[in-house]
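Sorry to interrupt, but I need a hand with the structure work. Leave the record below and I will have a look:
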Amino acid sequence: MTDKTKARVNAYTIDGDLFKAIINDEEQYSIWPEQKETPAGWREVGVKGSKAEVSEYIDKNWTDMRPLSLRKAMEANARK
């Protein structure tokens, strides 16, 4: 592994780093390093902490893994 590869991997795995919960328009969550810029198409939900703390928040709040567009389509079909 090159030094550049090691640095990229370590940016996501170092214990003690702070993470944030982010969500996209399909209401799918992700854990993202707090020091990294939130990627396009995602927004912060206001939760920051250890990887375990952010994971716990996501586990409690992301209860339906289906994308929002699929849920809406299924609801529309159910009403027909």
Remarks:
- The helical segments are 3-13, 51-61, 68-79.
- The chain has one domain: 3-79.
